[in-house]
Each structure stands twice: as structure tokens, then as C-alpha cells.
Amino acid sequence: MAELLKSPAVLMPSKEELAKISEDLRLKCSEEEIEAFHEHFKGTMKAYQRVNEIPEPQLPVKYPRTPGHRETKDNAWYWRCDIKGADTGKLAGKTVGIKDNVAVAGVPMMNGNKHLEGYTPEFDATVVTRTLDAGGRVLGKTTCEDLCLSGNSWTSSSGPVPNPHCPTRSAGGSSSGSASLVARGEIDLAVGGDQGGSIRIPSSWCGVVGHKPTFGLVPYTGAVPIELTVDHLGPIARTVEDCALFLEVLAGYDNGTDPRQHPGIVVPPYSSLLKESVVGKRAGIVTEGFIDVDSGVSGCVRKAANSLTAAGIVVEEVSVPLHADGLDIWTPVCFEGCYNMMIKGNGNGQNWKGQYCLSMQEALTRSYNLRPHDFSMPCKLLSVFSEYMARNYQNKFYAKAQNLTRLLTQAYDQALRSYDVLIMPTLPSTAMALPTTDMSLSEIIHLTFGMIKNTAPFDSTGHPALTINAGEVGGLPVGMMIIGRHFDDLTVLQMARAFEQIRDKSA
């Protein structure tokens, strides 16, 4: 009996198409080889057809919700919703915003980019499920920069996000809405993402606590990646205590869905251990972290760091010479890696095991091919430069930068043998101005990437790094960054809380 006719998952290539590919790739395939390949592919197409027919595993959606609505009055929100989690849990009574590069089932997401507008995921990212399981109440998707490729807060297709302390200044990016809304008290907690500083930059400029966890501590499953080896998700909060509590909820192994993780992850009870004594701990102020930093910012951070002696912490200067090259080492990895994974790889890339978000990939693929001219200026810059490097230098500098990342990691680890944490300014200045129409493109590009010299290296090396408000210069917040050993996020949080108590007591 004849089988029912099915729509083919993949169209069978013609011999002429195979010959053209052979010519383009300079393979010089003979007519006999092309004939044999064409015959072989008839069987290969059956495998692709079967893969297309088998249902794939899905991330769970456990809590009911309605789609909500597009926010039009507050640029820090992309989309408003109201999803109630479990009745009890560590986050019961807490309101939460989810950065718009993280999927929430049934709620539209844009990742700051016109290409993805109109896409609604059918799955919850793991961090969303964990937030709701812990009793958190999700109030919406927070605005992020276009494809998260900016440290400023003006590239999102939904409009610029002003700094809550000064409307002509940047809130920082790319987790711009998350930090702004937390700073303004609109929400208690927010999920941020960090590949070059995107949790710490807006948290610093908005004056809140932002923690980039150890690489792999928090699962990235269900979020749009930039580059597999620098992707981080983490908490933003107004207090260190809330930051520790949220990290406790978000952290932990995700059963093999995220290749950034390993199954041996241990999650301490950060919130209950936060108050343990830090007397006798050692903090190293990294000399190279103050290079090309505004004098007001330098003075504020040094004063804050030295105040830790009041908590019984030993504070000393330490030199990590390679830190001055950290941004250079990060650049080929993040630029070329992002281009290959997020843009050419349509939001997923290849060569990793885990949960591929297929509907998200399909949405990006359609829109990239339809309207590449709709990329933001930073995305165009990254694409043009990375394609040039691929055509002329192949993978050479990406590969070498990954090798040098090991040296950079060792340099920080060496300093962390003598000190429990390292300290430096989070950013070289207070909040930069938002771009205006009378600025040149060169000035605007500087506003986009000109603040990540201290933050980006720790995305490369994966060390935990937290920013906390150290004070103000000219009425604008200054962030102090505290860096710790891999998977010793607890000590970073404890040292931050020690400073927070000293700061608040003297206020």
C-alpha cells in the first residue's frame, strides 16, 4: 500500500547545484563523484526527514500567564505582564523583571532588535522557571540593547533608557532596563546578562548591586547567546542580601541543557552564609585597574576599598600587569565569536551539546535574511569587522585570544592566591551622555564600547565579579568591582556586604 505523501523537510539538490558548490569550494569534484554524491544524498535526505518528524524535547512551562501588553510610557520596560509563581519560596513577595534576551513563554521578546520583533517563545528559560518556582512574581521583560551589543543604553529598537539619576545620561547596557527599574524601585530584582560587562555596567551607573557569577554557575538555557565562552546570566538587586538570595535561586546545574556548566556545581546557601565574619580576609586593590580612570572615580573607589579595614579586612595594593591587556584579549573572542554564533549562526551556532532554542533560531534566521540593513550601528560594525577578519585571517586571532585567555586567567588566579578578592573601579567614569544628533559617528561608537576595559576581562576568564555603589561623583553613582576565585561567589558577596554596612553606617 502506498504511503501518504509528505512535504519534504529538505529539498533534494540537483547535480548542477552540487557541481556549483564543488566549484565554489574549489574541490574539483569529477562528474563521476557528483553523480555518486547525488545518489548517496537520496538516503541522507531520509535521515533529515525523520529528524524533522520526531518531536524535540521542550523546556517546561509551569505557571499560567497571559501575553500582557507592550509598554509605551516607560522605555525601561519592553513588555509588561504579570506571572505569579509558587505560593511559597525564597522569593515569595518579590517582584522580578526579566531581561529581554531571556525567553518567557507566551510573552513577546525582541532582544532589543527589530529583527526579532513579533517573536513569542513557547518555552520558559531555566532562570525564569527557577524564579517562579521560588515564589517570584514576574512583572515583565526589561529593555536591553540591540542584540545586547552595547554598554550604553541607546541602541534598543524600543528607544533609549535614561539614567534614573540624570535623564541626559546613560543607564548603561546592555541590561539597561533591568538596572534602571531596580534602581527606581519599580521591581525588587532583575535578571541581567553579561558578556562584556552588561550586568555590571548598568548596575554601576544606576547605583545598584549587580553580580556576574562564575562562568557556568547560572544556566544560560533559553537566552539568546552572544559567544558561548563568555555568556553569563546573573542577578541585579538594590542590596547585597537580595542579590545573594536571587543568586541562590538561579544557580545550579541544569541537567545537561547548557554546555557552559558541569554537573559538579555546588550551590551554597549564599543568603544564610552572607553574615559570616570577614575578619582577616584580604583584599588586593589592582593597580592596573586604575589606568585611564577619571580621578574622581579613582578616589571614590580607593576610599571605599580602604574603608574595608573597618571590618577587619586587610587591604593592600597588588599588581596584575596582564590586566592592562585584558580587553585586547577579550576583543577577538567576543567580536568574532559573536558574529559566528549569534549572527551567522542565527542565535545558536553549532558544535555544542544542550538545548537549542529552535523557534528563536528560526525567527532570527528569517529576519536576518529579510532585513540585514536593520542592524543597529554597533551590530553593523561588528559584522563588517568580523567578516573582514574571517576572509583575511580565518580563525587565527580568535584562536590565539582563547589561548591567551588561559594566561589571563592564571594571572588573576596568581593574585587570588594571596588575596581573597581583588578590587578596582567597575567603570572608568560616571555615566556617559546619551548620544545626540549633533554627535559624530566616531563619538557615538566610543559611547557604545568605551567603558568595558575593567569589566570585559572577567567575562573571558569567568571569575565572579560584583559591582556595588561606592559613592557619587557629581551626583552620579560610582561602582566598585569585587572579583573572586572561581565558584567562590560567596566570598565576593560577603565582602560586598561588609562594605555595604560600612557605607550605610557612615551615610
Written account of the structure:
With 507 residues, the protein is an alpha/beta fold. The chain has 2 domains: 69-329 and 397-506, Alpha-Beta Complex (Amidase signature (AS) enzymes); 330-396, no CATH class. It has 15 helices and 14 strands. The strands form 2 sheets. The chain has a 12-stranded mixed β-sheet with strand order 1-2-4-3-7-9-8-13-14-12-10-11, sandwiched between helices. α6 packs antiparallel against α15. The longest helix has 23 residues, at 31-53. It starts with 14 loop residues before the first helix and ends with a helix. The model has no long low-confidence stretch (mean pLDDT 96).
What is the strand and helix layout of this fold?
Blueprint: H1 15-24, H2 31-53, E1 69-70, E2 77-84, E3 95-99, H3 126-133, E4 137-142, E5 162-163, E6 166-170, H4 176-183, E7 189-194, H5 200-206, E8 209-212, E9 232-237, H6 240-250, H7 270-273, E10 282-286, H8 295-306, E11 314-318, H9 326-343, H10 358-370, H11 377-393, H12 396-418, E12 421-425, H13 441-449, H14 456-461, E13 465-473, E14 476-484, H15 489-506
Parallel strand pairs: 3-4, 3-7, 10-11, 10-12
Antiparallel strand pairs: 1-2, 2-4, 5-6, 7-9, 8-9, 8-13, 12-14, 13-14
